[in-house]
Amino acid sequence: MIDLSGRVAVIFGLANKRSIAWAIAQKLQQAGAQLAISYQNERMKSEAEGLIADLPGAEAFQCDVSNDAEIASLFEQLKERYSRLDVLVHSVAYAPAEELKNNFVMTTREGFRMAHDVSVYSLIAVSRAAALLMTNGGSIITMTYYGAEKVVPHYNVMGVAKAALEATVRYLAADLGAQNIRVNAISAGPIKTLAARGIGGLGDMLKAHAERAPLHRNTEQSEVGGTAAFLASDMASGITGETIYVDSGYNIMGF
Q: Where along the chain is NAD(+) bound (predicted)?
């Protein structure tokens, strides 16, 4: 059984109970971790506070990860409240909706910039801040998708951003390894989250995934949560810079 008792985890990207971040939060809390939940803005505050009511001991903090001043403020609050961090979960991604509807060749400069700023650079920014509080080492976990490697219709600029995210995981792992901080990505199969609804043809993606994956089914949020708990624990002490697939085996298939 995974034991995260006495460890402090901060989770970015918990929007609602369909979020992958929600499944991760549940698994970390069940394993004994103390949770700090970050919500994006004042509009999301009531939603976040409603969610943490089901996570005993969890606390909510506001932070827009595209704003350096808010990141600095959040980590000052975390330092004051917990003194240190052990786990960081980055479950954040965004691209303007129109960028996921048009052909990829029509990607706009601003859409490209925004997708990479929110989905990729934010991992660097929060990891840099978290590393200062990970005085006993730590585990940083982000979320990616197979569209980083192969063309997935309608995934468009998010696929390019996820490819950059996976490269970022490797570079951060190399930088932070000397501090015993591990950095890994989980590549989950398509899941019907609020964010995923913005991708055209999601139903077709889910159907194709279930038909072609060796396990012949779609991925459950709880499976991603369990993998995150493993990566957060000492059981994964020798794993860093990796992309771990939780996709019912879909990625191994040629066709």
A: 13, 19-20, 40, 64-65, 92, 162, 191-195
Could you give the 3-state DSSP secondary structure of residue 67?
coil
**What is the three-class DSSP state of 103?**
coil
Element (H, E) at 142: strand 138-144
Q: Please report where in the chains the tokens 């950059």 appear, as a residue.
A: 164
- pLDDT tens digit string along 134-184? 999 999 999 999 999 999 988 999 999 999 999 999 999 999 999 999 999
Assigned superfamily of 8-248: NAD(P)-binding Rossmann-like Domain (3.40.50.720)
Contacts of 118 (CB under 8 A, 6+ apart): 65, 66, 92, 93, 94, 95
194 is in an annotated binding site: yes
Handedness of CA 27, 29, 33, 38 (dihedral sign): positive
Residue 186 assigned as binding residue: no
In angstroms, the CA 200 to CA 153 distance is 8
Convert the pLDDT of each residue in 55-92 to its tens digit. 989 999 999 999 999 999 999 999 999 999 999 999 99
**93 annotated to a ligand binding site:** no
Cβ–Cβ < 8 Å for 36, 9: yes
pTM: 0.95
Known catalytic residues?
145, 155
Given this model, what pLDDT does residue 110 score?
A: 98
CA angle 11, 126, 85 (to 5 degrees): 60
Phi/psi of residue 139, nearest 5 degrees: -135, 125
